[in-house]
Design a protein that fits this description.
191 residues; mainly beta; Agglutinin, subunit A; four-stranded antiparallel β-sheet; 2 helices; 34% strand; disordered N terminus; Bulb-type_lectin_dom; signal; Bulb-type lectin domain-containing protein; Bulb-type_lectin_dom_sf
Amino acid sequence: MRKSIAAMFTLAIALISTGVSAQTLQANQALMAGQQIYSSNGNYKLVLQASDGNLVVYRVSTNAVIWATNVLGSVSSNTGAVMQTDRNFVVYGDITNPASYRWNSGTGAAVVDTAAYLKLGDDGSLTIYSGAGLKVWSTPGEACPNGGRLELYPVCAYPGPFQQTVPVPACNWSEAAASAASMNGYVGPCR
């Protein structure tokens, strides 16, 4: 058992790229201290901070923290966050030493899923997917990407004899209009 764990960590080190830029970490890939990955729209980045080992999702435009492990520790050349084949995402002080884990997603299972992966979404969320494409775990993303503010818009739902004005949360008027259209309504109070 210890030999297979050690082999996994050795494999993880071998799979590390020097310039990670994709929005995913595949099973047995690691994000090392100082490295980052970006969402496909480029609005968010996941960083394993070289200064303190904290794993953080930032909004690129403002450098605002969207999510973080808030686990700090000393950093070495072996400090990394590994997407494991058991579907667990783990931050290690030293990826060659399983006992040095600092944080994990809590999704480890008695499986070997070599197609599992972690994805940084276009809303700043981190999501673990199984090889079958099923969502295993996720952090919350921003309700309104790019720093927008969620607001309530009055929407007249189902105009006619059963119409009613309902508050619809949306990031902008266009989103409110799309929600209104799904209710055969319009943005604004019923008349």
